TrEMBL record:
It comes from Panicum hallii. It comes from the Eukaryota. Pfam families: SET. This is SET domain-containing protein. Residues 63-171 form the SET domain. SUPFAM superfamilies: SET domain. Coiled coil: none annotated.
Length: 348
């Protein structure tokens, strides 16, 4: 799915002096949105269909898809949202539009590469894309978005079943459930996806999840945390999907082990291979740069992931899930082989 922005603002992202908090200033962005709404009644009407964050979730209704076509035959929005009635335009509700922007604007996934000087200031963008704004959050997402110019491209990040709701993450989901709860509350909702329900309510692993979260906060031997978690999942006969959920939640612990030669030597094969864990996490959260990087790095040890051709196919699949059709399949294969040649001196 591709959608063009109503408006885009470019801002400045800069560290402040009190502990590295971020401050963002979006120059003229709100004015651009209001200007677009004033010039085009159809745009104003579509903006008014978006949530202000004050409604009950059950009261929100997604408009007919025909309204998002470039030239709809008839624009008849109901329930007071019709901005075009008998050729006249209603007074623009600026207060409502400001509330809509507060909960529906999307920032670009990554800041622009250009760094202004050496002070850590970078360009980054914010925009209002109406159709993608109707996509809900999930900690078990099946889609990602990529920004190209003023267009947002939403693509599948894993296999999507017929009738399954399309979702993408609003925040980092490679963290424990308690952190995800805090993030979702900051957005004004409580995530009730299957992953959050499992990690919050599963009786057999709930105590282990709480203990692992405490260990993660307090530091210590991340290898011990990973080994204990893997052992608990094995003893409880957790299904592969639930293993994937927990590995995604404690990815920082797994990553700390793989980053440390000392921990790898200490715990040995009691810790599953990086490629195997990366593949598992991809099943939980779909394509992700961190997961793809781990799969590439872990590909030198194909233990548990099949032969080299099978590993290559898995890397390509995760790469396509991460970047969509922007990256061609043959380009992903070339990247994989170059990575192996450069880092591992392996010729395929």
């Amino acid at each position: 799915m591709m959608a063009k922005a109503v408006a885009i603002g470019r801002g400045v992202l800069q560290d402040t002096t009190d502990g590295g908090e971020k401050m963002v200033v979006w120059k003229d962005f709100v004015g651009k949105v209001l200007d677009a709404a004033e010039k085009c009644p159809r745009t104003a009407a579509l903006i008014h269909t978006l949530s202000t964050g004050e409604e009950q979730q059950d009261d929100l209704v997604v408009p007919e898809m025909a309204l998002f076509r470039q030239e709809p035959e008839d624009l008849n929005l109901t329930d007071g949202t019709n901005m075009v009635r008998e050729g006249t335009q209603e007074v623009l509700d600026v207060d409502r539009i400001l509330k809509v922007l507060d909960v529906n604007c999307l920032t670009e996934d990554a800041p622009a590469a250009d760094v202004l000087g050496n002070n850590g200031i970078v360009n980054c963008g914010v925009g209002l894309w109406i159709l993608p704004s109707f996509i809900n959050h999930s900690c078990h997402p099946n889609a990602r978005r990529t920004h190209v110019g003023d267009h947002a491209i939403v693509h599948a990040s894993r296999d999507i079943k017929a009738g399954e709701e399309i979702t993408f993450p609003y925040f980092d989901v490679l963290v424990p459930v308690s952190k995800r709860r805090e993030a979702s509350r900051a957005w004004g909702f409580e995530c009730k996806c299957d992953r959050c329900r499992f990690e919050s309510e599963d009786c057999t692993l709930k105590q282990e999840i709480l203990k692992s979260e405490n260990d993660l906060v307090n530091g210590g031997d991340m290898g011990a945390l990973v080994v204990r978690l893997e052992e608990k999942m094995r003893k409880s006969m957790a299904k592969e999907r639930r293993k994937a959920f927990l590995r995604a939640s404690f990815w920082s612990a797994y990553s700390a082990v793989y980053d440390s030669d000392k921990l790898v030597r200490k715990w040995g094969r009691r810790v599953p291979s990086e490629a195997l864990v990366a593949e598992s996490i991809a099943d939980a959260v779909g394509g992700n740069e961190n997961v793809l990087r781990a799969m590439l790095r872990g590909s030198k040890d194909a233990n548990g992931c099949g032969n080299w051709l099978e590993v290559e196919d898995k890397v390509v699949r995760i790469g396509r899930a991460t970047y969509g059709k922007v990256v061609k399949r043959h380009a992903m294969r070339a990247l994989f082989r170059l990575t192996l040649d450069a880092n591992n001196n392996i010729n395929l």
